[in-house]
Amino acid sequence: MAETQPAAQPRSWSGRMRSLLQLRDYRLLWATGGLDNTGRWMDSVVMGLLVLDLTDSAFQVALLFMFRWSPMLVFALISGMVADRSNRWAIMMVARIVAVLATSALLVLVAIDRVEPWHVFIASFFLGCIFVLEFPSRRSLIYDLVGSERIVGAMSLETINSTLGKFVGPFMAGLLIELTGFTGPYVFLLAVYILALIFTFKVESRGPIRSTASDSFWRTVSRGLTYSLKNNTIRSVLIVTFIFNALSFSTESLYPVVARDHLGVGAGLTGILIAAPAIGSLLSATVIASLAVVRYHGRIFCLGLTLQMIAVLFFALSPWYPLSIVMMMVAGLGAAGFSAMQTTIIMISSEPAMRGTALGMLGHCIGVAALGGLAIGTVANYMGAQTAVAISISLGLLLLVPVMVFSPLVRHPTAPPPSD
């Protein structure tokens, strides 16, 4: 049974956050999200450093990134359809169980010193599959729990969650690799994913099944694509997300390579470098969560995106580790605004029955990072990781600036459809 919402929102930021966390199931979902984000950011760093250690190849590290994000590119719309038609709690339970199994398998292989790059690629693919499966279901269930008036606060708390996970995960990855090799991080990861499974099991809300349509897959794909492209706001978010993930987000695949080959640091300092954006994101997400009312979600979305990309460009050009840390923190400031508003704009602008499908379309645009990672890995093989990152970010900025200027995201406030 879904939980009832309080009649009125408290005025203070702390009061609004407490009112959200008083919802038992939202509190459990929030805790599960924190654990999952910690595990997801940690295993991506551990896997990247493990593949780099096994192969000494920037291309294979980027290939690992492609395996992680290719499920989002291929299956995102299917997961959105599933979110609209299925028990969302059951979907999240399946995702948590697969995470435990994949991590257990890698732990055994690392412990007995039999791990090969293809083992890591397969595990990365399965972890990518569960992320795309859970992505729309989890966010749709959160929307059902808190409603449109409190979704900005809820998604800001989610961003804070992601930010803490992005700090703790890479930091613990680098620290444990330095202290124990690759076995310690996988023991830690397994504990994190088991705890997330327990919290998910305790969630009572299942969320209403919004859609009962029995259309064929291709008819549903056509309907979802048509709906998303006809809505000016959703279409703009999709285009911006497509360009950003292809040319900017995909550069994260090479951060371990830049840290080792260009900045000359080991696993511990690499973990700190990759965790640094979380410091800026935490500050930015806290400010966003403190806003009682947000009307121009698109302005925060576009400003955050631009700040993040400019900071990553300076990171790629930086010859000094301390300056690189600062640039990563600045990138985190922008990332929080971008990530908090990305799904928020989609959910507010979508009709309830199409919300999961619209998020599925967003997932496809996020998943294009898989192709971007493959392309940037190829460039890095010939020109170096630092140059590949700089070229990709510069091209992304050239494409994104006119798109954002001429989209309704900056000019108009975000509003729900009349039927919502």
Summed up, the helix count is 18
Order of helices and strands: HHHHHHHHHHHHHHHHHH
The shape, in one word, is globular
CATH superfamily: MFS general substrate transporter like domains
Gap between N and C termini: 21 Å
CATH level-3 fold name: Growth Hormone, Chain: A
Number of strands: 0
Largest sheet: none
Q: Mean pLDDT, rounded to whole units?
A: 83
Radius of gyration: 20 Å
Low-confidence stretches: 1-7
- What structural class do the secondary elements suggest? mainly alpha
So, CATH architecture?
A: Up-down Bundle
Give the DSSP E fraction (strand runs of 2 or more residues). under 5%
CATH hierarchy class name: Mainly Alpha
Give the domain tally.
1
The helical percent reads: over 70%
In short:
It contains 18 helices and no strands. It has helices spanning 13-21, 24-55, 58-85, 88-111, 117-146, 151-180, 183-201, 217-230, 232-247, 255-262, 267-275, 277-290, 297-317, 321-349, 355-367, 369-383, 385-406, 408-411. It is globular, with a radius of gyration of 20 Å.
Description:
By secondary structure, this protein is an all-alpha fold. It has one domain (14-206, 215-411): MFS general substrate transporter like domains (Growth Hormone, Chain: A, Up-down Bundle). The chain has 18 helices and no strands. The chain has helices at residues 13-21, 24-55, 58-85, 88-111, 117-146, 151-180, 183-201, 217-230, 232-247, 255-262, 267-275, 277-290, 297-317, 321-349, 355-367, 369-383, 385-406, 408-411. Helix 9 runs parallel beside helix 16 (369-383) and helix 12 runs parallel beside helix 14. It is globular and about 55 Å long. The model is unreliable at 1-7 (pLDDT under 50).
